[in-house]
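Long-time lurker. I teach an intro course on protein structure, and each term I like to show students one example going from raw sequence to a predicted 3D structure in token notation. This year I'd like something fresh instead of my usual example. Would anyone be willing to generate the tokens for the chain below so I can use it in lecture? Attribution to the forum is fine with me.
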Amino acid sequence: MLKLYYSPGACSLASHIALEETGAPYDKHLVALAKGEQRSEEYLKINPNGRVPALDTGHGVLTENAAVLTYIARTHPEAKLMPEDPDGMAKCLSLMCWFATSVHVAFAHFARPERYCSDEAALPGIKAKGKADYFDYMKKIDGLLAGRDCLLDHYSVADAYGVVFYAWGRRAGLPMDELKNFTAHKNRMIARPAVKRALDQEGIDLA
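-- Reply from a regular --
Happy to contribute to a lecture. Here you go:
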């Protein structure tokens, strides 16, 4: 049985949603980031990078959302969580890689600026720039959703990933309600039973 290592409200929410969408049985293991459990000797044996998500497939452990989400989608094709045609699959992967390497990193710059500089005097500037960059990315996602119900032609793991960033923006006090397309997408997402289950299990209210 699949086993997901996650932390409530972290980017692992995307993988949590995807697993709920499949309807397949899986186990969850809470890694409390606030308590530093990701740096524990026990967890570092599972994911040496000390991050979530991690997915134990029974054949090994996968890390990084793009890989975990792709694995979930490809091993549960009946859930239709990723396009099967090469062009659609590439677009999905491209979007998820952008999420991981740009959008997530911008959030980290203002949520945890100490990761990027040891000079305390520089941290406020890093934080301010990260927050501005993050909201710029939120506006870009809003633009991607103009006239669309989903980020791709059909619902996919990219949409599960996208809702993470909406939640983070709201948590950071950004004016997410100004982003009409992204907010409408969030509302469609939280109406999905699988998304609601994952959010409820993690104690997240996006209503």
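Some talking points for your students: The mean pLDDT is 97. The first helix runs from residue 13 to 22.
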